[in-house]
Specification:
Largest sheet: 8 strands, mixed
Strand content: 15-25%
Radius of gyration: 20 Å
CATH superfamily: (Glycosyl)asparaginase
Strand order of the largest sheet: 4-3-2-6-5-1-11-12
Oligomer: single chain
Helix content: 25-40%
Order of helices and strands: HEHHEEHEHHEEEEHHHEEEE
Bound molecules: aspartic acid
Length: 324
């Protein structure tokens, strides 16, 4: 082989490797963590959840293959879960003590470190879309309550009466909890939703959307709309979305801490998530997390008996699971 042929061979192999690296993608989602048991959930129910998770993942993969941006994919995938009454986000979200639904959501772009969030909104059909609007079309990161709704309306998002979100199952859970004067039912799958994506351009993004905790009072806000607690993304480290008892995730700065463990302690995404779940357990907190890094490595960790979850990678690997 002469020098010229060798040069061309290297060029061809090099560009093939570059193309392969460029087309690498991954998507991971969750539909909430909580106390779940295989005996208590009928096969039909399990299949219903799995089918919806699959629908969301497949939409994500289709968009990934078409070259869509991570931020757009996170929003569209979460929209699917928000529109399903199965999850505690959008339609089907849990009730507050006052028998209203108040929604929280956030999104972060790992490429630019831009972020957007809304909290305590009652009329925005898809809160994650509002979070994205805050990120892209406002000077702010975090809007709440009426102001957030006013902004979303101005940006042309679909507004709905609070009744749209109501489901009988969630109302029954509220009634049960009110009797016990408790917040959240450990037996009730909480069903917050989240998504993290690595797109073919090498960028990562994470988003989370929730109704919070059943029977919440006084305008309580959990971790989900707080950048650094329930959601975080940085191309240098990872994209993270959390679910669980929000007060503990806020105290730990959970999502940002995972990123910091990777940045300052050189942990892998799985090691960092495990370490953070260990800290959560130390405080007697419960919940779970999904995360991925810019190489498409995926982590799905939790200390509850189940977490609705799933992922797809460009390598062809795929998993959808509920229980431990
Ligand atoms: N983290 C959410 C909150 O505390 C609830 C959940 O994920 O189940 O509002």
């Amino acid at each position: 082989m002469n020098l010229k042929t060798l040069f061309f061979l290297i060029l061809i192999v090099g560009s093939a490797c570059f193309a392969a690296a460029q087309s690498k993608y991954a998507i991971v989602i969750h539909g909430g963590a909580g106390v779940m048991s295989e005996e208590r959930m009928s096969k039909e129910q399990q299949n219903e959840y799995k089918a919806k998770l699959n629908e969301a993942l497949e939409l994500g993969e289709k968009m990934l293959k078409e070259g869509a941006e991570a931020t757009d994919i996170v929003v569209r995938v979460i929209n699917v879960l928000e529109d399903s009454p199965l999850f505690n986000a959008g339609k089907g979200a849990v009730f507050t003590h006052d028998e209203k639904v108040e929604l929280d959501a956030s999104i972060m772009d790992g490429k630019t470190l831009n972020a957007g969030a809304v909290a305590g909104v009652r009329n925005i059909k898809n809160p994650i879309s509002a979070a994205r609007e805050v990120m892209l079309n406002s000077e702010h990161v975090f809007l709440s309550g009426k102001g957030a709704s006013e902004f979303a309306k101005k940006r042309g998002l679909e507004m709905v009466p609070n009744k749209y979100f109501h489901t009988q199952a969630r109302h029954e859970s509220l009634m049960k909890l009110k009797k016990q004067e408790r917040e959240r039912n450990q037996k009730d799958y909480t069903g917050t939703v989240g998504c993290a994506v690595l797109d073919i351009h090498g960028n990562i993004c994470a988003g989370t959307s929730t109704g919070g905790m059943t029977n919440k009072k006084y305008g309580r806000i959990g971790d989900s709309p707080i950048i650094g607690a329930g959601t975080y993304a940085n191309n240098k480290t990872c994209a993270v979305s959390c679910t669980g008892h929000g007060e503990y995730f806020i105290r730990l700065g959970f999502a940002r801490d995972i990123s910091a463990l990777m940045e300052y302690k050189n942990m892998s995404v799985t090691e960092a998530c495990r370490e953070e779940i260990r800290k959560l357990a130390e405080l007697n907190g419960t919940g779970g997390v999904i995360a991925l890094d810019a190489n498409g490595n995926i982590a799905m960790e939790f200390n509850t008996s189940g977490m609705f979850r799933g992922y797809i990678k460009s390598t062809g690997e795929k998993e959808i699971a509920i229980f431990k």
